[in-house]
């Protein structure tokens, strides 16, 4: 095995000698030394001790090690929170080492508005580049599928929550707390969720392979309630009257209220049925206690 084959992995190495700044460990098969800096361990060792370490490389490509074993390694995945974001570089993850690991911008969505934020969660592993440097690699669909649980028809219409592990203009892919692998079509979300973002939704279809389709939109009754509140709040801001009715143009309604004309009409109909508003001369008015 070449040195490259050890990088990003946990190995048992032997202490060869001690220096003023740390220990040198031997890769016996390679005859190479790996530095274990004193800052990377809280233990004392003797020459000849065999110790379990994680092997990585510093910024100059030199082999180093740590007795702090990270939650991920090459080929081993885990859910890890985003620790920092650097514009022009990408996202950094704290995997338990002194140095955070980078998920480069080339492996992130094209549009930065759907990049993860600090605290978002991704299922990741490590990869070694051509210069023997370690970087974060997000899980692909086959990896997510390998850890997923199949949903059944009994799960239809259930509320779920989970994290977005892949995102695109056509939709987003989610891994739920139950272990379901799902897809959110662009028509079933108001905005495109961030990569790694935790979202709440409901199951709208269970496929034959056990994967699910998810909607992030509220149920019709929940949406109606929210839309009614939106219309009422706008009326109250305008002292009880607004130049919008069920005859208004769809474009006007979408621009002002962020809802379709159908949703707006249902909200108005509910408010009129509850005797809270009325329409007159092309305006909608908030009813007062005297009316």
From TrEMBL:
Highest rank taxon of the organism: Bacteria
Domain S1 motif: 6-68, 155-217
Signal peptide positions (record): none
One Gene Ontology term of the molecular function aspect: nucleic acid binding
InterPro entries in the record: CvfB_fam (IPR014464), CvfB_S1_2nd (IPR048588), CvfB_S1_3rd (IPR048587), CvfB_S1_st (IPR039566), CvfB_WH (IPR040764), NA-bd_OB-fold (IPR012340), S1_domain (IPR003029), WH-like_DNA-bd_sf (IPR036388)
Family note: Belongs to the CvfB family.
Name the UniProt record assigns to this protein: S1 motif domain-containing protein
Origin organism lineage: Bacteria, Bacillati, Bacillota, Bacilli, Bacillales
């Amino acid at each position: 095995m070449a040195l490259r084959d050890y990088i990003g992995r946990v190995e048992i190495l032997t202490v060869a000698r001690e220096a003023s700044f740390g220990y040198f460990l031997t890769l016996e098969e390679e005859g190479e030394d790996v530095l274990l800096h004193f800052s990377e361990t809280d233990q004392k060792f003797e020459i000849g001790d065999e110790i379990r370490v994680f092997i990585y490389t510093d910024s100059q490509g030199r082999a180093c090690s740590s007795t702090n074993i990270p939650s991920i390694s090459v080929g081993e995945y885990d859910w890890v929170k985003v620790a920092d974001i650097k514009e022009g570089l990408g996202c950094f993850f704290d995997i338990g080492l002194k140095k955070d690991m980078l998920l480069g911008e080339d492996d992130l969505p094209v549009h930065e508005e759907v990049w993860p934020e600090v605290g978002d969660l991704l299922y990741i592993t490590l990869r070694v580049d051509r210069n023997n440097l370690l970087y974060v690699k997000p899980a692909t669909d086959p990896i997510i599928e390998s850890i997923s649980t199949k949903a059944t028809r009994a799960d239809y219409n259930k509320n779920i929550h989970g994290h977005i592990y892949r995102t695109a203009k056509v939709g987003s892919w989610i891994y739920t707390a139950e272990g379901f692998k799902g897809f959110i079509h662009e028509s079933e979300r108001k905005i495109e969720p961030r990569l790694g973002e935790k979202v709440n939704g409901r199951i709208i279809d269970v496929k034959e392979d056990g994967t699910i389709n998810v909607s992030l939109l509220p149920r019709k009754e929940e949406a109606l309630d929210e839309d009614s509140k939106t219309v009422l709040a706008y009326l109250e801001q305008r002292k009880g009257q607004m130049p919008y009715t069920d005859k208004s143009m769809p474009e006007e309604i979408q621009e002002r209220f962020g809802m379709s004309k159908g949703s707006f009409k249902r909200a108005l109909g509910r408010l009129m049925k509850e005797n809270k508003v009325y329409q007159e001369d092309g305006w909608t008015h908030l009813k007062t206690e005297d009316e």
